[in-house]
Design a protein that fits this description.
Elements: E1 2-10, H1 19-29, E2 33-41, E3 50-54, H2 63-76, E4 85-89, H3 92-105, E5 109-112, H4 120-128, E6 131-134, E7 149-151, E8 170-175, H5 184-191, E9 200-203, H6 212-223, E10 229-233, H7 237-245, E11 247-252, H8 261-268, E12 272-275, H9 280-292, H10 299-310, H11 314-331, H12 334-344
Length: 349
């Protein structure tokens, strides 16, 4: 089977999308050949049966130039190079851009989408694809497309994200781009309610220039706390697991409404997650949800949860961490996700 993937970034060092390089590596193990078309290509090391095509964003190509390169790639894929399926990662517009060629050549399209947002582009894309893969029921909320939704779980690389023997000198960690929707200000507000601020690390940086004021405000807010808060900046993907293994608790204040992959990665590392994201009620289950969840926009509730978890002994933290890591391995393993999607697209070699 030959699959063509369209994605935003293919770069194993990228702080946000570095994980997708591993996804492509696993995809290559289950197909005869793979073409990865990315808007931007950075550091890549993939098997011989993978062809990488850049749309040129790293060299300044604009939207029209990138669209022309995508169409040229699709039109040039003829004969034995013709893909059996085109799979778009996260961006419904990729489906729309590829639709004229794919429709004319009867190449089925598929979409991976994990976000609560439903807009015109998503509705149009769903009408064009054969199936939408998503991590959880909450990760795809367009009711008009439920008949095409296949819930697969997330794809967490268990070889990279796993508990380690390291000590955990950091009490509280959060990993996300710096943006109001990610809620780092809510975390700092919760920390301000504690008698003393626990050792805290904030990993991530802005992606949009419009978020610079928010980042500046976070630094000012952190400076008022009675304890160490360290801003790590954007952490390369290869180093994220080590950062997670240093921390006792990983706080997720994101308001995306879908199963956030970074929380599952932290769980796989044995780090205790606290989340206000309602989609994690299903992941944590009725036993753990009351301990690991807090209401959104409620720093007092988050402060109380932090107090409870940080009061646990090292042995109790380790036992809870192992339980959570096992749950990720059973429900969200990358090695199970990719073959399932390949089979849904037409089978494995």
């Amino acid at each position: 089977m030959r699959i063509l993937i369209v994605t935003q970034v293919l770069d194993r060092t990228d702080a946000v999308l570095g994980f997708f390089h591993t996804w492509c590596k696993v995809f290559a193990e289950h197909v005869d050949s793979l073409v990865v078309v990315a808007q931007r290509v950075g550091e890549v090391e993939l098997p011989d049966n993978v062809e990488v095509v850049s749309l040129g964003k790293e060299s300044g190509a604009g939207k029209l130039a990138m669209l022309a390169r995508l169409n040229a790639c699709l039109l040039g894929s003829v004969g034995s190079r013709r893909p059996d399926a085109v799979w778009a990662h996260m961006v419904p517009k990729f489906v729309l851009y590829a639709a004229p060629v794919c429709t004319a050549r009867r190449i089925p399209q598929y979409l991976w989408y994990t976000h609560k947002g439903v807009d015109r582009n998503l509705r149009l894309a769903v009408g064009l694809v054969r199936q939408v893969f998503t991590a959880s029921e909450e990760s795809f909320r367009y009711s008009g497309g439920f008949h095409k939704r296949l819930v697969t779980g997330h794809g967490i690389d268990g070889e990279h994200f796993h508990p380690g023997p390291e000590q955990r000198p950091v009490d509280v960690l959060t990993v996300a781009r710096l943006a109001p929707s990610k809620g780092q200000d809510e975390l700092l507000a919760a920390l301000s309610l504690l008698p003393s601020c626990p050792v805290t690390e904030i990993a991530g940086d802005i992606l949009l220039d419009s978020d610079r004021p928010f980042r500046d405000a976070l630094h000012e807010q952190a400076a008022t706390l009675k304890g160490p808060v360290t801003f790590l900046g954007a952490v390369p993907y290869g180093e994220v697991a080590n950062v997670m293994r240093r921390a006792k608790v990983m706080v997720n204040v994101s308001h995306t409404g879908s199963v956030d992959k970074v929380v599952l990665e932290a769980m796989a590392c044995g780090t205790i997650p606290l989340s206000c994201n309602e989609s994690f009620e299903r992941v944590f289950g009725p036993e753990l949800s009351p301990r690991l969840m807090f209401p959104a926009n409620d720093p007092g509730a988050l402060s109380a949860r932090l107090t409870e978890i940080l009061a646990l002994s090292d042995e109790a933290l380790s036992a809870l961490g192992r339980q959570l890591a096992q749950r990720v391995a059973e429900q969200h393993d990358l090695g199970a996700l990719i073959p399932r999607m390949v089979a849904a697209m037409g089978g494995e070699r």
